[in-house]
Amino acid sequence: MLENLKNKVIEVSKDAQKIGLCKHKSGNFSIRDEKTGYVVVTPSSVDRMKLKTDDICVVNLGGEIVECKEGRKPSSETMMHLEIYKVREDVKAVAHTHSKFATSFAVLAKRIPAVIYEVSSMGLKDGYVPVAKFAVPGTVDLAKSIIEPVKRSDLFLLEKHGGVAVGYDLDDAYLKVQYLEELAEIYYRSLLINNGKEPEAFTSEQLSAWKYPEKFEI
Fold first, then answer.
1. Which of 135, 136, 151, 218 has the greatest number of beta carbons closer than 10 A?
2. Catalytic annotation on 77?
3. Active-site entry in 67, 77, 89, 185
């Protein structure tokens, strides 16, 4: 069932582990199928490099397992993914990682300002990456903690946990979570160079002002 989506989840999961966004069986990815409404999601506690198509689980938006190989369980963060899909009907994929720089700011519950203009396409309605209040991973409380942040941004941090990005497909969500880590690293280095002083950041108005030019005239 939904083999093409399962294989896409595997492809992204392996790449995320390879480039260091996820380690030690951490992080999770999902895609919502437009036709059935079902969600394909990574399994719990499986080395991403060893994933096979039938390892990927399928659930409905109510959290009921539709398909899952014996001995496998959907990611413990599945409730969070499902809550995102319920809150944002435009979202078709979710990427959750434990990358080092983004998670460092998550540990401090410190939101990340838009210090580079490239994040103007990341849906930061308030001009920064928000932080979802801490809740124990894999709980209903964690799932509920993301409701307000995901309404305000396509990128957000989970306090003391990691980072999340949403998109119109998994490639989009995965690209955004990579941008999140890059933004976090640049912000960290800017603070370091600037002796802890906050760098100037773009406002939400500035981020939304740019439009693709109708003519390329100088």
1. 135
2. yes
3. 77
Instruction: Give per-residue pLDDT as tens, 52-68.
Output: 999 999 999 999 999 99
Which three-class secondary structure state does DSSP give residue 20? coil
Its pTM stands at 0.94
Q: Which residues pair with 139 in a beta bridge?
A: none
* Residues recorded for the chain: 218
Helix (H) or strand (E) holding 165: strand 162-167
What are residue 94's DSSP bridge partners?
Answer: 30, 166
Q: To 10 degrees, the CA torsion angle through 47, 51, 57, 61?
A: 70
Structure-token match 């990574």, residue found: 42
> What span, in angstroms and rounded, lies between the C-alpha atoms of 48 and 63?
22
Rounded CA-CA distance 147/25 in Å is 26
- pLDDT value for 26: 83
Residue of 13, 87, 18 whose CA lies nearest to 43:
13
DSSP reduced 3-state for 6: helix
